[in-house]
């Protein structure tokens, strides 16, 4: 095994572009790539471009008639079919949509293959994490579900237990749906409560079905949850599940839209807490996952200058075993690039200046506290199904 983590990157992923009025501006990907480079991390990773996902790979999760519909919309955006979620406000069709989406999916699948085969212990695809795409429809800015495809490819390669942990502010509904009845895949999603946010799913009572009963875990956090609550919830649920499940590979989704500056959601998490969760996912991979196999993906994040590039640069640094010091200054040449591309001033430091801690669940909880009620609802709904104490 090479000592380096893999950073999956092909410049053409920036072709995933729903147009100038859409919040998912691909500049967030190019600025992240630029900040990774400016922070010197290229020396600590292998930068690899994997091939696009072909139809046989896409079919691990998606229906062929949907893939065909994406291809038609890609050639003729005006003919996009809303029955497949295409040509909608969230997922407007664009020329080259199939190619850009399949390329992003290919990066996550390639990351999964490399980690499974031991070519690297960790791989990052920050262009991925498109967790809302359904087997037969686009949804929530997501066309092909690269996260689910990475998991499905691991199963195809022989994995018997794969854990998926999703800390995007939105519920990881597409990945949950793909493995709803599959006990080989444990999906865990921490997100803002469905009462106040798209996609209005991710209730604690959603726990899987059939042989997969107990394999879906949902933590629905009250709007306004900040660093301490977010970290407390993560640590009250995720480590215990992974310690018990002992996955052979861990796939994590690191949507940056939990941040207090994010315009599309209502949690109040800082960059520093996001970084702390990234580091915890890395630690958990080494502690509970065979070979430390870890595939880390991006996701949502619509504060495209202030938040997303710093968040995912930290993720790359952590996966590369070359963590970026939060106190360090943002490199001036990157701030120049930001100004040239966006006419905005980039952030000055790699931190929001927080040093978040949390009260461990084991120390006790308050049944009158809304955050604790959310954690308790999750533990009560699913822990007994897994033979764990609620
Ligand atoms: Zn999101
Ligand atoms: Zn490591």
Automatic annotation (TrEMBL):
<dbReference type="GO" id="GO:0045150">
    <property type="term" value="P:acetoin catabolic process"/>
</dbReference>
<keyword id="KW-0006">Acetoin catabolism</keyword>
<dbReference type="GO" id="GO:0040029">
    <property type="term" value="P:epigenetic regulation of gene expression"/>
</dbReference>
<protein>
    <recommendedName>
        <fullName>Acetoin utilization protein AcuC</fullName>
    </recommendedName>
</protein>
<dbReference type="InterPro" id="IPR003085">
    <property type="entry name" value="AcuC"/>
</dbReference>
<comment type="similarity">
    <text>Belongs to the histone deacetylase family.</text>
</comment>
<dbReference type="InterPro" id="IPR023801">
    <property type="entry name" value="His_deacetylse_dom"/>
</dbReference>
<dbReference type="InterPro" id="IPR023696">
    <property type="entry name" value="Ureohydrolase_dom_sf"/>
</dbReference>
<comment type="pathway">
    <text>Ketone degradation; acetoin degradation.</text>
</comment>
<dbReference type="Pfam" id="PF00850">
    <property type="entry name" value="Hist_deacetyl"/>
</dbReference>
<feature type="domain" description="Histone deacetylase">
    <location>
        <begin position="22"/>
        <end position="316"/>
    </location>
</feature>
<dbReference type="InterPro" id="IPR000286">
    <property type="entry name" value="HDACs"/>
</dbReference>
<dbReference type="InterPro" id="IPR037138">
    <property type="entry name" value="His_deacetylse_dom_sf"/>
</dbReference>
<dbReference type="GO" id="GO:0004407">
    <property type="term" value="F:histone deacetylase activity"/>
</dbReference>
């Amino acid at each position: 095994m090479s000592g380096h983590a893999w950073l999956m990157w092909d410049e053409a992923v920036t072709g995933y572009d729903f147009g100038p009025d859409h919040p998912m501006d691909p500049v967030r990907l190019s600025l992240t790539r630029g900040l990774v480079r400016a922070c010197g991390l290229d020396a600590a990773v292998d930068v690899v471009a994997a091939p696009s996902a072909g139809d046989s790979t896409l079919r691990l999760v998606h229906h062929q008639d949907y893939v065909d519909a994406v291809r038609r919309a890609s050639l003729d955006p005006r003919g996009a079919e809303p029955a497949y979620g295409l040509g909608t406000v969230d997922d407007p069709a664009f020329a080259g949509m199939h190619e850009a989406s399949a390329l992003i999916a290919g990066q996550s699948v390639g990351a999964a293959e490399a980690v499974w085969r031991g070519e690297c212990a960790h791989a990052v695809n920050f262009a991925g994490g498109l967790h809302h795409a359904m087997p037969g429809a686009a949804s929530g800015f997501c066309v092909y579900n690269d996260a689910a495809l990475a998991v499905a490819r691991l199963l195809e390669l022989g994995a018997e237990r794969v854990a998926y942990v999703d800390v995007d502010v939105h519920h990881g509904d597409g990945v949950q749906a793909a493995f709803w009845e599959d006990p080989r895949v444990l999906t865990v999603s921490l997100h803002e409560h469905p009462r106040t946010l798209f996609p209005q799913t991710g209730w604690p009572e959603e726990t899987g079905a059939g042989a997969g009963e107990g394999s879906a875990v949902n933590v629905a956090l009250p709007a306004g949850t900040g660093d301490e609550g977010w970290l407390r919830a993560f640590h009250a649920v995720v480590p215990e599940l992974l310690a018990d499940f002992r996955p052979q590979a861990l796939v994590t989704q690191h949507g940056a839209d939990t941040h207090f500056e994010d315009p599309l959601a209502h949690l109040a998490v800082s960059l520093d807490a996001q970084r702390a969760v990234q580091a915890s996912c890395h630690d958990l991979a080494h502690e509970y996952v065979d070979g430390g196999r870890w595939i880390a993906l991006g996701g949502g994040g619509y504060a495209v200058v202030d938040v997303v590039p710093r968040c995912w640069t930290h993720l790359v640094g952590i996966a590369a075993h070359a963590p970026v010091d939060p106190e360090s200054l943002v490199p001036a040449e990157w701030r120049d690039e930001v100004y040239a591309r966006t006419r905005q001033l980039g952030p000055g430091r790699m931190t929001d200046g927080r040093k978040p801690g949390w009260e461990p669940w084991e120390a006790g909880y308050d049944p009158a506290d809304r955050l604790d009620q959310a954690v308790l609802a999750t533990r009560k709904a699913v822990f007994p199904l897994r033979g764990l104490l609620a």
